[in-house]
Amino acid sequence: MNDTIVAISTALGVGAISIIRVSGNDAVRIVNKITKNKKLNNALSHTIHYDFIVDEDKIIDEVLISVMLAPKTFTKEDVVEINCHGGIATTNKVLELLLTNGCRLAEPGEFTKRAFLNGRIDLIEAEGVMDLINSKTEASRGLAINQISGKTSNLIKDLRQQIVEILANIEVNIDYPEYEDITVVTNQMLNDRLIDIEKRIKEILNKSENGKIVKEGINVALIGRPNVGKSSLLNCLLETDKAIVTDIAGTTRDCVEGTISIDGIILNIIDTAGIRETNDVVESIGVNKSIDLINKTDLVILLLNNNEKLIAEDIELLNKIKDKNYLIVINKTDLKQNIDISNLNQDKIVYISALNNSGIDNLKNKIKEIFNFDQIITSDLTYLTNARSISLLKNALKSINDIKIGLKNNLPIDMLEIDLKNVWEQLGSIIGETYEEELIDQLFSQFCVGK
After folding, report:
1. Mean pLDDT within 177-196
2. At residue 376, does pLDDT exceed 50?
3. Rounded distance, CA 238 to CA 232, Å?
4. What pLDDT does 246 receive?
């Protein structure tokens, strides 16, 4: 944290501008050393300066240099950004000069890591920065912005404040029992407060399921026996010929993936190998992958042929998906109906003709209905989206339940206080009030260099 770091913050390649970011106590001094006019040491904060980058007497580039002095910067350290002409040779040469004059190359996410360690942002806000960079839809962008702005963090901070007030009251009761004007925390009072906190945690967790959908999308597996039209349906959804379509059974031998957006929600669609008994080694591997995906995806779409009666393989697949989130798509409605669907759940059925590209909108609408797209899109998008945060919140909920059990068993308040402190600490871990060094290193290593 005492050294000065540097990294290229824009994608390296041919472009109009490249930005090289420097942060640390010696940021201004080091950049000043490689400028022609040598005027940055006296520069005011948040000013932009026209200059040249030089290597001794040789001009390397004509640049604009932004000077931002601590503490009003992203890292809360002195930050200098050099806007040079885009180009691999020029950008790398400027970076080389900074490294030879005292900077260290930044690790992935180190600028954001310093912002966190210096108290500029909390962990939820830091994760929001990464989510914003990776966002692919307007909904995921809005979700990330709420994390960065602190709206999501405030949900956790409010819960911690409620708990710390209870803890403070308990401490006063224990240390100063003679004070008659202090509220005594009884088992009933503590139970009532915990019910309210528990309710709010459950609300956050329920909403966070929507947050996961917005951030990561919905994984959809297209399954069925060979030649029911899985690859054709994938091509219809993607509006491109990504999967090979033939009349030969077993054409698709491995998973083919594609992505579409419906009302701002990403669908990660996987076209699987046709499921059937086979002696072909390669095809059997694809079949096993297809069966495995039934348990791993958010939605299973089973395709059946409209012009064929159900056979044993179809029945077996129907049994495999009955406890999953699924839809049944009856394909080839352009042909005479021979399938008997009287024993199937009619609410789960969608009719299409992949050949004629008909019924596809009905399928999309059914998916929107299953995952409550209307509710997701119209909500305020203030959710937890990170598996780490959600896991900690679930642990906090479990600890609250343990305290409630202790209250029923009439355990002393001072014993239950230990568990309540544990809840407070778990909530603190979500926003980074408490953390382990290994966790922080792992989290920020997922960022790109220069951010």
Report:
1. 72
2. yes
3. 10
4. 41
Confidence tier at 91 by pLDDT (50, 70, 90): very high
Is the pLDDT confidence value at 49 over 90?
A: yes
Within a domain: 446: no
Residue 377 in domain = no
Structural domain boundaries enclosing 343: 221-297+299-370
Q: What is the largest CA-CA distance in the chain?
A: 87
Q: Average pLDDT, stretch 228-252?
A: 65
Is residue 17 a part of any domain in this protein? Answer: yes
Phi, psi of 402 (to 5 degrees): -65, -40
Sequence-separated contacts (24+) of 434-442 with Cβ below 8 Å? 435/123, 439/388, 440/113, 440/116, 440/117
Distances (CA, A) of 47 to 120, 364, 428: 21, 51, 37
Task: For residues 112 and 122, give the distance between their C-alpha atoms in angstroms, rounded to a whole number.
Answer: 10
Give the domain-ending residue among 370, 393, 424: 370
Closest CA relative to residue 286, chosen from 271, 298, 266: 271
CA atoms within 13 Å, Cβ hemisphere of 403: 30
Distance CA 221, CA 224 (A): 10
Q: Is the pLDDT of residue 35 over 80?
A: yes
444 within some domain? no
In this structure, the answer to whether residues 193 and 233 fall within a common structural domain is no
